[in-house]
Description:
Strand order of the largest sheet: 5-4-3-7-8
Mean pLDDT: 96
Structural class: alpha/beta
Largest sheet: 5 strands, mixed
Number of strands: 9
Distance between the termini: 20 Å
Number of helices: 5
Radius of gyration: 15 Å
Order of helices and strands: EEHEHEHEHEEEHE
Shape: globular
Amino acid sequence: MPAATPPVCDFGWKAPGFTLPATDGQSYSLSDVAGAKGTLVMFICNHCPYVLAVLDRILRDARDLAGHGIGVVAICANDADAYPADSFPRMRELAESRGFPFPYLHDETQEVARAWGAECTPDFFGLNAKGELQYRGRLDASGRNPGPADARRELFEAMVRIAETGEGPREQTPSIGCSIKWKAA
């Protein structure tokens, strides 16, 4: 399956709200997960080799961003009937076994992924404190395999900049990953 690439950042796009169930038994809205200085919303899944290649880095960056006032959340919107590895019980297993430091939400209807224009896993949406899109780039230079251990932390740096200035970098490299697994219409 060919890799998917999301569009470039639409600076100032206002993120639509949501409320979704999480693997910890709670439900979270966008305002529940928002940080004082910004929010990182990630569309990920359990089975995608692009996500698995950088999962340790995602977890590291999420932990580090909390200290900068950035709230972090992950959403899985894949069709779990066609991709059982992305089912809610399997999401719970992954979040618990890896100690996710953020809520892992299930978008079973795929309405949130569609409203956000999510294209692939991973797909990163970096919002400022006003809920405006400022980053739609990649985590780092990784692809289907992890990039170099010393790869520039593009997502982390962008989110720190957003926390400090409210604006993301103008130069962004799009993420790459597996396409969202949409349900048949």
